[in-house]
């Protein structure tokens, strides 16, 4: 099992100027990566935009990071307890709550694409897009094989690229899967950011398919699915 523990990250968005930076060629790529990496996002200056624009901002944020927690603020005034406590979903995992969680069903933002964003449910996407891939399948994985696969996926992503001349990359990954280690079956949580990941054993009250979410750019979801299935014992 991993000896690394990933803490959560938080981002803050200027609602009034979000569209300007989002559409800027010079800053949009950096902005999208920051959105992907955040576990919590404060959308600030909500008093300066109307509801329609606020909904558009949330839609764009969710298109890159379906699992992020969002809170609205004015003058960046947020409750201190909310700022310092781990995201609720992370607390659920660490508290070993029953397996009724954000990965039990595909996030709606993945299954219902907006007009301005691209989504996939285990299918191909354009190599230049940052896209969430939701993958589910039954079976019990070998934990050692799974950890080896996650390492290859994050450290040698070219093997999973859509195009040979454009190496892809995985920006975030989360998962909950059944694994066997030393003859013992357990549920394992996956969390990953860039080239760092952790696999942590958790208790689960319900069984179901293995579920993974990869937020990536230029990768072939079918290759990831095939690699995961090769870890089944």
UniProtKB/TrEMBL annotation:
It comes from Euplotes harpa. Residues 163-231 form the CobW C-terminal domain. This is CobW C-terminal domain-containing protein. Signal peptide: none annotated. Transmembrane segments: none annotated. Residues 3-70 form the CobW/HypB/UreG nucleotide-binding domain. Belongs to the SIMIBI class G3E GTPase family. ZNG1 subfamily. One of its GO terms (molecular function) is GTP binding. The keyword Transcription does not apply. It catalyses: GTP + H2O = GDP + phosphate + H(+). Keywords: Chaperone, GTP-binding, Hydrolase, Nucleotide-binding, Zinc. It comes from the Eukaryota. GO terms for cellular component: cytoplasm.
């Amino acid at each position: 099992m991993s000896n690394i523990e990933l803490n959560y990250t938080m981002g803050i968005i200027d609602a009034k100027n979000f569209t300007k930076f989002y559409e800027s060629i010079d800053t949009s790529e950096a902005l999208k990566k920051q959105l992907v990496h955040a576990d919590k996002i404060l959308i600030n200056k909500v008093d300066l935009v109307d509801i329609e624009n606020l909904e558009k901002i949330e839609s764009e944020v969710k298109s890159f990071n379906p699992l992020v927690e969002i809170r609205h603020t004015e003058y960046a005034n947020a409750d201190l307890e909310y700022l310092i406590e781990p995201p609720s979903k992370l607390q659920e995992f660490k508290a070993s709550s029953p397996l009724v969680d954000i990965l039990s069903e595909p996030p709606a933002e993945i299954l219902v694409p907006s007009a301005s964003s691209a989504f996939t449910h285990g299918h191909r996407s354009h190599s230049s897009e940052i896209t969430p891939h939701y993958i589910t399948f039954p079976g019990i994985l070998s934990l050692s094989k799974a950890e080896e696969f996650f390492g290859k996926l994050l450290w040698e992503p070219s093997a999973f690229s859509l195009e040979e001349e454009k190496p892809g990359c995985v920006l975030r990954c989360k998962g909950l899967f059944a694994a066997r280690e030393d003859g013992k079956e357990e549920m394992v949580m996956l969390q990953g950011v860039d080239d760092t990941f952790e696999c942590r054993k958790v208790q689960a009250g319900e069984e179901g398919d293995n579920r993974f979410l990869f937020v990536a750019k230029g990768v072939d979801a079918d290759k990831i699915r095939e690699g995961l299935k090769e870890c089944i014992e």
